[in-house]
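hiii, so i know i said id send this last week but things got crazy w the move. better late than never?? heres the sequnce for the chain we talked about at the cafe, plus the structure i predicted for it. fair warning i was half asleep when i ran it
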Amino acid sequence: MGLAIVEEAGVTDVGRQRKTNEDSYYESSPVFAVADGMGGARAGEVASQIAVEAFQEGLDPSEGPERELVRIAKEANRRIYDMAREDESRAGMGTTLTAVIVGDHDVAIGHVGDSRAYRLRDGDLERLTTDHSLVEEYVRRGELTREAAEHHPQRSIITRALGPEPDVEVETLTFPAADGDVYLLCSDGLTGMVTEDRMGQVLRAGASLTEAAQELVGIANANGGRDNITVVMFRLGEQGGAGAEADTGEIDAAAVAAGVGAASSSGSGAAAGPRAGAGR
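okay and structure toks below
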């Protein structure tokens, strides 16, 4: 018997220092995605929304999950690139994308940029993706330690994104699924404000994913909230087991910022799908 998604949660928040939210996310089992847009004149907001909307068109069952992630990301890239060429105010706009497709026995990830995917298994939080960023290149070449990279002034410069070029290389990975695994997708508004140790502490605390997502966003804002913050999480469990009916609650971003309880829907932005959101 395979595994099922037994719980999920998603939230996006503008943070403390930005006027607009250029993050978007998609949450429609078995697909989850986070996109962090960039560009002036609200172009980043448009780019990230295009990226997550591309998943609305569904999956081709004849293709494997990794190939589907590449196909959808490349289609989103083409749409963003074409829109930027047609509208000078959106020239150079782009977005990160970290997306997953959950199968019965494994989890496939497609990744472009510096949004991240993590997995909590047996109490250990592991980063599954590698940032496509300038400082990550420094780390790979041995010119910078991992600790120094987290505080480097050029840590936000990415080397790969959807939109700026007519084609894009999409990194894909597949991991075996296990009962109890918790996956977390996030924009750098979380990882730039909250250490991985602190993230692991929150996830190990045993709260619901809705409460954990709310707490992570709250910590990021308490630490300065320098960027938009987006968190999407899901938990895997045995099909037909206890709690196998997924808890799918989109969190009210305004409530998160205020430190109060979660609500069913913020109504704060256009939805890209059955469980999708874009902050405003």
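btw The domain at 3-266 is CATH 3.60.40.10 (Phosphatase 2c; domain 1). thought thatd interest u
miss u guys!!
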